[in-house]
Amino acid sequence: MNEKESRFLSVEDLVVEYTSDGEVVHAVNGVSFHLDKGKTLGLVGETGAGKTTIAKAIMRILQEPPAAVKSGKVVLEGVDLLKLDKKEMYGIRGDKISMIFQDPMTSLNPVHKVGEQIAEVVKIHNPEMNKTQAKQRAIEMLERVGIPAERYHEYPHQFSGGMKQRVVIAMALACNPELLLADEPTSALDVTIQAEVLAMIKKLRDEFDTAMIMITHDLGIVAQVCDDVAIVYAGEILEYGSKEEIFMHRFHPYTIGLFGAIPQLDVRVDRLSAIRGLPPDPTNLPEGCHFHPRCPYATEECKKGSIPFDEVRPGHFCRCIHAKEGRTM
Question: In terms of Cα–Cα distance, which of 221, 226, 173 is closest to 41?
Fold first, then answer.
């Protein structure tokens, strides 16, 4: 992919490793993508694919050690975030970039009132505000996510899981960030609550004109929320394009397998189609295509060398040497 200087966010050849018990975990392996202002990119893949590590590297919240960003760039509006010192990054985090974590239970301090936690974020990033103004902003954000102002003084344990996640979203958006990283924000919620929270995230994203990276394994969420899609496997992007392109023209066998595992209401089958095998050990990734041990189309050529990331259709890229043979679904 050719990156343009005008891109809002560009991630270029990002490599992240963890060291554990003397072994090196290859978590992110040369990931590149871009994101335009106001757009949403979906990072899709199985657990352990490296999606959350990518987001934490962008936010610069990886625990170092054991994590280490070995190479690459994360360029936000022309500034490489990986070159900023801690103080400079502290000003970016929460102000220009915010993150919604997977589990709201661990995102809120149980001994502080929810409203005060939001007000604290507002005050930190807006030192010119007094306490009354920060409180008013926190109340406004609670109301925007459907929580009455009178609940400002309640504690996290007094909220349901769905309501806690609303508080976390209010906190993430309190300073009008330009980029929102959402890490499986509905996976800990009941299905009916998931739909409400997703609709709210979409509404607030549009109101604030916020660019967003949605991390998920749920292609239904991608269909509802995302503009572009990156399919992530073993720390690499295997397929990348617009939502319409990926949903209508799947080239990589892994992408085809993901879609094949989705139940269809109009088709009756005895058993869903599953991708055989398990993801590879990230301390010992296969040579060549990392997916070849599980791929029904793998040849000897797939088991060696570096697999190029080719443009198979305009704006649609795929990391598969057989993609241009025309296999698509």
Answer: 226
Pair of tokens at residue 259: 């879609």
Determine phi and psi for 180, rounding to 5 degrees: -120, 125
Looking at residue 153, its amino acid is H
| pLDDT tops 90 at residue 67 | yes
Across 21-35, 38-52, 174-188, 246-260, least confident range: 174-188
Residues in the chain: 329
pTM over 0.85: yes
For residue 103, how far is the Cα from the chain centroid? Answer: 14
3-state secondary structure of 50: coil
Q: Rounded to whole angstroms, how far apart are CA atoms 327 and 155? A: 54
Give ∠ CA 161-114-169 in degrees, rounded to 5: 60
> Do 139 and 154 form a contact (C-beta atoms < 8 A)?
no
Distances (CA, A) of 110 to 116, 119, 145, 163, 245: 12, 16, 20, 14, 44
Owner of token pair 């892994």: 254
Residue type, 108: L
